[in-house]
Write a structure and sequence with these properties.
This protein is α+β, with helices and mostly antiparallel strands. It has ten helices and twelve strands. The structure holds 4-diphosphocytidyl-2-C-methyl-D-erythritol 2-phosphate and adenosine-5'-diphosphate (ADP). GO terms for molecular function: 4-(cytidine 5'-diphospho)-2-C-methyl-D-erythritol kinase activity.
Length: about 300
């Protein structure tokens, strides 16, 4: 008999539109956040243990906290408390999503840990309760659980699924080091100064391009209100965006709070060529071609 364990695969995200409102009294910002889950994955494996412990392997693992501050650990502790049990589990995170990269790696691990522990412990938490726990853990965590494409309102946690035709081809230019999400929101506020900020709204043309699977139209509609702030904090990202445009991307933008840059292409071949050109140009640490939408957190193996 193998040791009882549950492995969950969970994808990264890109924000094809991120419209950011003014700061709220609670420190968050209202958003119109159009999420797309893309095929870059972390894997979280839950195994019974005497106490809640975490290990992590993969690129950037040295920057992932292994204490109670790890979002996956917080997820396990929250689920255990909800069911009045001890969080007696070891969580191993196999990381492929860039750490602090604007691709929701920590949120992904939190969603995966919730699903893995719920399966391992047989707690059978109803889906709507799992999603409420996700929202307690972080604004992006509900989307990591559901995947696909969705519009996030409020601070990004109130989701409406979006219809998408076909598959979009992306290249992600990975940067050295991360950017702090709160610092990027603060910089966004600072750059805006006293200017009035409109209510964030999803662009109808963008939603139509997703629905129709039209990459060329999507390319004209992608937008990220956090991009000026990310560029202000990390000016070298302008070189990465320029390199992608020069190499033929349909569109390029900073992913969420950055520093990963996302490029839309018209197919798998263009994506592979663009990734090679970006790496050869030397403006990024690595470049990865992949597609979206893909499903959210998914249980792969269960030996419970
Ligand atoms: C910017 C986005 C875009 O999807 O993702 P990343 O680029 O970080 O992956 C998200 O809004 C990040 O969501 P997430 O990383 O879950 O943020 P949370 O843990 O909820 O909040 C961390 C901090 O970010 C800021 N924050 C977050 C969400 C929001 N709507 N307004 C904010 O101002 C606040 O300073 C908050 O204290
Ligand atoms: N499981 C986790 N994976 C990655 N980072 C985590 C995790 N748990 C907590 N963190 C912390 O969250 C910060 C943001 O990481 P991450 O979620 O990868 O980036 P982003 O918010 O840009 O999408 C990291 O710098 C790290 O300190």
């Amino acid at each position: 008999m193998p040791a009882p364990s549950v492995t969950v695969r969970v994808p990264a995200k890109v924000n094809v539109q991120l419209a950011v409102g003014g700061p709220r009294p609670d420190g968050f910002h209202d958003l119109a956040n159009v999420f797309l889950a893309v095929g870059m994955y972390d894997h979280v494996t839950a195994t019974p243990a005497d106490a809640l412990t975490i290990s992590c392997a993969g690129p950037g693992a040295e920057d992932v906290p292994l204490d109670a501050g790890n979002l996956a650990a917080r997820a396990a502790a929250l689920l255990a408390a909800r069911h009045g049990r001890r969080p007696d589990v070891h969580l191993h995170i196999d990381k492929d999503i860039p750490v602090a990269g604007g691709m929701a790696g920590g949120s992904a691990d939190a969603a995966a840990a919730l699903l893995a522990c719920d399966t391992l412990w047989g707690t059978a938490t109803p889906r709507d309760e799992l999603l409420a726990l996700c929202a307690e853990l972080g604004s992006d965590v509900p989307f990591s659980m559901v995947g696909g494409a969705a519009l996030g309102r409020g601070r990004g946690e109130r989701l409406t699924p979006l219809p998408v035709s076909g598959t979009f081809h992306w290249v992600f230019a990975l940067a050295d080091g991360g950017l702090s999400t709160p610092a990027v929101y603060r910089e966004c506020d600072r750059l805006r100064g006293d200017r009035p900020v409109p209510e964030p709204e999803a662009a109808p043309a963008l939603l139509a391009a997703l629905r129709d699977g039209d990459a060329a139209r999507l390319a004209t509609a992608v937008a990220n209100d956090l991009q000026p702030a990310a560029l202000s904090l990390r000016p070298a990202l302008a070189d990465t965006l320029a390199a992608g445009a020069l190499a033929g991307a349909l569109a390029g933008l900073v992913s969420g709070s950055g520093p990963t840059c996302a490029f839309l292409t018209d197919g798998a071949e263009s994506a592979a060529a663009l990734a090679a050109a970006l790496v050869a140009g030397g403006t990024c640490r690595a470049a990865r071609a992949t597609t979206g939408p893909v499903p959210g957190a998914t249980t792969l193996e269960s030996h419970a």
